[in-house]
């Protein structure tokens, strides 16, 4: 989910996995199609918005990998999105995802407008300007993924990023659908 230019999709396909990729960007989807053809990899590549409805049947997916993709919404959207993840995963299916941490500078100190109690509208110039970002703490994650057996939640602080000090924190979550 949120395949972008496809580095993870390519890697997993090279390891022998059957891979389906989805992204909202025409450019990214076309790039991944060209790259997978060049690498002679059979990847099911879809253009679509993961926030609305995943184009997969109920209980049809073994594993979802979505790093730095699902937080681009508000509280209502994240609940719907986690519901979609649950819908398409097979029982026992695995999820590997990440969420922005409420301890991050962007949530605590940046002064960005809040859409709801968990969501800010990013105002920095760049590709995420005016894009909502959902931020969570451990309890929020456990509530959102209450129909999953959570194996691990890691809280990572990127305190130095792109040659400068940073205060950018993320949760990395993996679990299994009950």
TrEMBL record:
Residues 1-96 form the Methyltransferase type domain. The keyword Transferase applies. GO terms for biological process: methylation. Pfam families: Methyltransf_11 (PF08241). The keyword Nucleotide-binding does not apply. GO terms for molecular function: S-adenosylmethionine-dependent methyltransferase activity. This is Class I SAM-dependent methyltransferase. It comes from Oceanirhabdus seepicola. The lineage of its organism: Bacteria, Bacillati, Bacillota, Clostridia, Eubacteriales.
């Amino acid at each position: 989910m949120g395949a972008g230019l496809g580095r993870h999709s390519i890697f997993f396909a090279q390891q022998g996995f059957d891979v389906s990729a989805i992204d909202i960007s025409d450019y990214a989807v076309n790039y991944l199609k060209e790259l997978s053809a060049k690498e002679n990899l059979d990847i099911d590549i879809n253009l679509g918005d993961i926030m609305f409805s995943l184009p997969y049947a109920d209980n049809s997916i073994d594993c979802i990998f979505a790093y730095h993709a699902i937080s681009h919404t508000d509280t209502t959207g994240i609940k719907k999105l986690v519901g979609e993840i649950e819908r398409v995963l097979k029982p026992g299916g695995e999820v590997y995802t990440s969420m922005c941490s409420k301890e991050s500078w962007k949530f605590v100190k940046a002064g960005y407008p809040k859409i709801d109690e968990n969501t800010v509208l990013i105002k920095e110039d760049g590709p995420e300007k005016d894009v909502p970002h959902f931020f969570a703490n451990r309890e929020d994650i456990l509530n959102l993924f209450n129909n999953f057996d959570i194996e691990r939640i890691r809280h990572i602080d990127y305190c130095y990023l792109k040659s400068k000090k940073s205060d950018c924190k993320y949760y990395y979550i993996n679990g299994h659908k009950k």
